[in-house]
Fold this protein.
Amino acid sequence: MNLTLKIWRQDNPETKGKMVVYPMSNVEGDMSFLEMLDVLNEDLINKGEEPVAFDHDCREGICGTCSLMINGEPHGPDRLITTCQLHMRKFNDGDTIVIEPFRATAFPIIKDLVVDRTAFERIQQAGGYISVNTSGNTVDANAIPIEKEKADEAMDAATCIGCGACVAACKNASAMLFTSAKVSQFALLPQGRVEATDRVLNMVRQMDLEGFGNCTNTGACEVECPKGISLENIARMNREYMSAIVKG
Amino acid sequence: MGALIKSSILRKVVMALSGFFLVLFLALHVTINFVSVFSPDLFNELSHFMGYNPFVQFLMQPILILGVILHFVLGIGLEIQNSKARTVNYVKYKGSANAPWVSRNMIISGLVILAFLGLHFYDFWIHEITFKYVEANLEDPTRYYEETVQKFIPMWRTAIYVIAFFLLGMHLWHGFSSSLQSMGWNNKYTASVKAFTKLYALIVPAGFIIIALYHHFNHLSQ
Amino acid sequence: MGSLDSKIPSGPLAEKWTKHKNDIDLVNPANKRNIDILVVGTGLAGGAAAATLAELGYNVKTFCYQDSPRRAHSIAAQGGINASKNYQGDGDSDYRLFYDTVKGGDYRSREANVYRLAEVSGNIIDQCVAQGVPFAREYGGLLDNRSFGGVLVSRTFYAKGQTGQQLLLGAYAAMNRQINRGKIKSYNRHEMLDIVLIDGKARGIIARNLVTGEIERHSGHAVVLATGGYGNVFFLSTNAMGSNVTAAWRAHRRGAYFANPCYTQIHPTCIPVSGDHQSKLTLMSESLRNDGRIWVPKRLEDAQSIREGKLAPTELSEDERDYFLERRYPAFGNLVPRDVASRAAKERCDAGFGVNKTGEAVYLDFAAAIQRYGKEKALTSGLKNPDNTTIKQLGEEVIESKYGNLFQMYEKIVDQNPYKTPMMIYPAVHYTMGGLWVDYNLQTTIEGCYAAGEVNFSDHGANRLGASALMQGLADGYFVLPYTIGDYLSDDIRTGPIPTDGPEFEATEKEVLDRIDKLMQSNGTHSVDYYHKKLGKIMWNKCGMSRNAEDLKSAISEIAALRKDFWENVKIPGEAGQFNQELEKAGRVADFLELGELFAKDALHRNESCGGHFREEYQTKEGEALRDDENFKYVAAWEFKGAPSEAIMHKEDLVFENIKLKTRSYK
């Protein structure tokens, strides 16, 4: 398979970036998208050029490190996968593939396709936890039964890998799906109810401070989320937030 | 409190509430207008009631105006804020892959509707205010039907109205169900409620379009 | 050869830990505020330790090369976490968990540590539930368990197929709480490049800020290493691309002994290699072996035709197939432990029966399970005389409900539908049991340098049982290290802050900078990956699933030669003072090139087969592992003496007072 890659190159946060065209030949369908980039980088290094910087780590779709806007979609055209799980057989001979970093004011570019997603860290630090000491002297794990349905729903929200595809896909660069997944996981469990009011207020405040856009319910985030996190979580966060305001 | 006013969710909820209120108002509006198609007398009667009832005039009307203003001020504000959330745009952004055009372009349909509201206010509301309070004319419970019909004589105005209603439909297509989501309403009934909101987004603007076209062509044929 | 003091407390096994906790010195809360601890690595062990230490009142700094602590590779663990809760009432107990772990480790782990692990395992579950980890539950609302990897009880707690992720998010949440309180300062995208010793004690680290390329000095009263395993020495493994041995190896070079480096776990159910471009291997949960049957064709010609694409596996009849695990191990069948299953697959492929292009794959077939479940389901749904299509459909539904996400993942990667045609699997490097030698307190042979989780060697012996890695990481992090470290730190309450401008920091930083300069200046001809792949090939072919003296000897010389070549000819574009992923990789591969040699040396000296270490010279007539308890019942802890070839071995004899040594048999 022969391809034309158009890749965003940017030396550092201060410099201006630009799209650079790289022809690629002998791409195999069994390669993952990142392996295809590995091959490109190997060529660039051999030619004495700087390889394309991109984020990646586990390469099995769970760590949430890989990103990339591929032909205008985060994690590429396939659904319910991350870029590292995207395979080249999804493309055709002769295709042009545009590869860009996730773009949001809250995700400044570090280099080429690598962005800084620490805004997500700060949102979680603002309240994404249950204040329990790690002494091990808590009550027995089975002391509080939890409805299976609720536990499963909490689990569904908790599967968020924090990759930022929701922000990248959203026309407003909103982080509502991410924040709501974190809020929901705890809001659904009895252990998390105790601090629910403060948690949602603090996390949403931090989310706003980071400069993410607002949710206009286009639903793009849900479609592009590699873990299929549901929009219901956003509705739940809206509810939690309003009731938190009422409670003060 | 200052923080609250800046809160994205609170703004969204106010946006949703005002939108939801306007959605309800449209139901009333289209119903009354539709009466003009089959009963000029009843239409006059209803219009007169709306125009002179103090509850409607001095409570509902200001709320409505406030709702409209809130909705578009907030809407434009959110749009500005949202555009700041991504200052460098994608070279290639395939929005159609994950969200419908109408959902992504509420600002366009919204601004067209806003512009239309200018004309609509000029046509009816300014006229009413002038009639009642500036010129301080006496009450005339029979003038409304004729005034309405007169408005739809020119082709250009009818065309503008039809286009605006078309965009209103698009705005509602996304906006109605979106307002429910913003207010935190998403559960097992959502699928069917969503279907209802889409139907609503078809029927209400279609009603307005039919009314406008009816009066335009009805007059031509007379 | 010296001997090592493991500082195991005296007294009966079950009372050692309690007694030890009562005996050790504590630091009073007011003094904890004056003590700084550096935690390197933020997976389950590091994240849990950082959170607990901060909660106790110490000032903690954490370091991770990822852009967030929550991306550490603990996140990829799928199956579950063991705990001796006995919620199922099936006779589980601390002793039974201890026994299974020691036996599974082929009697090469330390009794006292393993018992402590079993003892605190229940607390882990309590703790995690309190933190909001959404474990799977039954309809009654209580926690669900599954059974795992060849044990006789159901003691594995799980959260879908993402248990590691959920536990890590729990530990990360606990960290966030402390970050919010200002007790933890987290340095993400930072990599530790050396450890700083002052008067023989670990007092700081030199780290590189991976974003700016700046070299930073950080000081503390103790250093905790929780940097995971070194499976990436094989290049292809199920580890994350960034997983590395650098922190552990740098500590090793400064005096921490490296124990049993040759103990590597090869996991049998991974997706096979598809070509030279392959960058990593994907594991599929071991739970698949509960329902899948493993086979290769009986006839070589058939295997050949399948490889050439002329024959489909579904065209072979039952008696043309060789269900080799069922044939060799009738008692355990497809459920033999990981090392046994892996070796058996390799044996068949080496004999020419492999079934994919590269000849390195065997089938994992669900057709029988689909039939069985289909019939069962038809029966319970009241269907009389269902036709074959209905049975198949019902069976596929059951399989989907159990393994749907795994099947989907397989299909995405391989582009074959595993409901219709058997899956292909092949073993891959997954976990390393060896690591930094630690005593009962988890302290390495450098005073004040501790090691927790996969980076240490202590609990799994020569082979790890399924669902035990998460248990060990959290046990070390939440419940062991935070207390044992107090014993050491109680002497440091008057030390005051450690300055970072002393000669030791100066000297260590200079060494780090010199090494980076040397890497950047070599300006040779080959990329870092080129060397990493070459190293991986040597390791896999000569130090992989089965080893022999001749291969190991040649591996040692080949690795040494490759290392020399690397330092002369590696090519790293860009600058050191900027974001530079090639430089990051180069530093890691340079360390792998040293570790690899020690690995082979350790494997060569261990003239026996045990757990993940299989020496072809030491096997029974039937091809089973032959352990030598008389001569090798010890931990081999290697001391660095300037080069891997010069390393000196120290022995820690393993004493088994509570368990009788037996030959592992799964026949």
Summary: Residues 503-633 of chain C form a domain with the Methane Monooxygenase Hydroxylase; Chain G, domain 1 fold (CATH 1.20.58.100). Chain C has a mean pLDDT of 95.
